């Protein structure tokens, strides 16, 4: 059997390299070993693959040869029912329940919501004023998640939930803070002032708020609302079963985790690159000028040059550089076909 090359440096250093300088580390390994190599990560010895064909095979071919092993880091943040850490039938069920909100007219509604929130945030800026793009984008994407996903507008719980979610997300803002998620030996509750103790208490308080909101919305279910929490409360699987409170909490946290910081970071990079390249700025402005006032969000979404700018931004500095690991199901390989 052909072996796969990989780093020989001590495992702890390999993990640190990946947490502290992920892009440089992956690039230097790829240069040295090509598009398949091994490295020690928080999940143990891991094979890294970067050839597009192999990636497509692993991630999209429904051949039941790979599973997404319950990721401990994720489970501690998002819960055991999060779509991001489910495999097989449970993953398929959850996707079916969650997919309807991401189609057709609903996408137009969310598009309008996103345009309004963005206009509102931009209206607070004045020409010539310096602003921190990432902070502004985080405010926009947090507001989008709170309204589109949680359906929170002016509820009294809104400001409490917003500040708890912001604190929670801050945990992943620097490699140093995020280390407590990657190194199990740092996960010891030694009181409210220690990092893990603080995290545990924050999470408990946030859960209480979320379960209270879920219970309140369940008791006064309004089928006309289009937010994703309402759609989850209304969703039924093939057996007519709805989602439990815990499943809903875990998927709410998943959408926040998957959708907030990713989009904020990508948008901040887009602003950076568009300003760094005057010819790109110029061409983009010309294309945007062809839009009518209050253009339909789906028309904005289809603009070709804007699409190219978004894709190039994500290509230069991908905000999600890795997928979650997949594990080979050995029985799928060795059982007779
Ligand atoms: C720039 C923005 C984004 C990037 C780069 C991105 C990237 C990714 C990647 C690479 C995965 C695959 C992870 C894996 O399977 O191992 C993923 C999954 C996922 N993302 Fe995003 N994402 C973005 C925005 C969003 C937004 C806005 C939402 C929702 C509000 C979202 C929700 C999800 C969910 C639910 C999954 C899991 C899907 C499943 O397991 O079937 N993402 N994303």
Description:
- It is a single chain.
- It contains 16 helices and four strands.
- With 337 residues, it is mostly helical.
- The strands form two sheets. Strands 1-2 form a two-stranded antiparallel ribbon.
- It starts with 10 loop residues before the first helix and ends with a helix.
- The model has no long low-confidence stretch (mean pLDDT 87).
- The structure holds protoporphyrin IX containing FE (HEM).
- The site of protoporphyrin IX containing FE has 14 residues, from α12.
SS content category = mainly alpha
Q: Give the fraction of residues assigned to helices.
A: 55-70%
Order of helix and strand elements from N to C terminus: HHEEHEHHHHHHHHHHHHEH
What ions, cofactors and ligands are bound?
A: protoporphyrin IX containing FE
Cα-atom Rg, whole angstroms? Answer: 22 Å
Q: Note the quaternary state here.
A: single chain
The stretches of 5 or more residues where confidence is low (pLDDT under 50) are: none
Strand content: under 5%
Counting DSSP E segments of at least 2 residues, the number of strands comes to 4
Shape: globular
| First-to-last CA distance | 21 Å
Q: Give the overall pLDDT as a whole number.
A: 87
Question: Largest sheet at a glance?
Answer: 2 strands, antiparallel
Strand line-up of the largest beta sheet: 1-2
Number of helices: 16
């Amino acid at each position: 059997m052909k072996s796969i090359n990989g780093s020989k440096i001590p495992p702890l250093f390999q993990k640190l390299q990946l947490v502290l300088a992920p892009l440089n580390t992956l690039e230097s390994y790829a240069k040295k070993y090509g598009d398949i190599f091994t490295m020690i990560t928080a999940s143990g010895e891991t094979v890294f693959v970067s050839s597009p064909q192999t990636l497509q095979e692993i991630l999209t071919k429904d051949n039941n040869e790979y599973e997404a092993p319950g990721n401990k880091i994720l489970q501690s943040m998002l819960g055991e029912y999060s779509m991001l850490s489910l495999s097989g039938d449970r993953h398929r069920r959850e996707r079916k329940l969650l997919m309807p909100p991401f189609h057709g007219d609903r996408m137009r509604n969310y598009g309008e919501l996103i345009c309004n929130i963005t206009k509102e945030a931009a209206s607070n800026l004045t020409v010539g004023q310096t602003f921190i793009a990432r902070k502004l984008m985080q405010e926009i994407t947090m507001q989008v998640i709170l309204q589109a996903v949680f359906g929170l507008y002016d509820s009294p719980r809104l400001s409490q939930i917003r500040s708890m979610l912001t604190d929670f997300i801050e945990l992943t803002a620097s490699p140093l803070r995020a280390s407590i998620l990657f190194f199990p030996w740092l996960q010891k509750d030694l009181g409210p002032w220690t990092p893990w103790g603080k995290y545990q208490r924050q999470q408990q308080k946030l859960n209480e708020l979320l379960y209270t909101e879920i219970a309140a919305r369940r008791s006064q279910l309004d089928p006309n609302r289009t937010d994703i929490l309402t759609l989850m409360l209304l969703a039924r699987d093939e057996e007519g079963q709805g989602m439990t409170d815990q499943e809903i909490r875990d998927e709410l946290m998943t959408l926040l985790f998957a959708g907030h910081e990713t989009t904020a970071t990508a948008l901040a990079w887009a602003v950076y690159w568009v300003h760094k390249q005057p010819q790109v700025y110029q061409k983009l402005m010309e294309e945007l000028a062809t839009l009518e006032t209050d253009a339909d969000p789906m028309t904005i979404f289809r603009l070709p040059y804007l699409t190219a700018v978004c894709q190039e931004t994500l290509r230069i500095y991908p905000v999600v550089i890795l997928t979650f690991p997949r594990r080979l199901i050995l029985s799928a390989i060795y059982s007779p076909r």
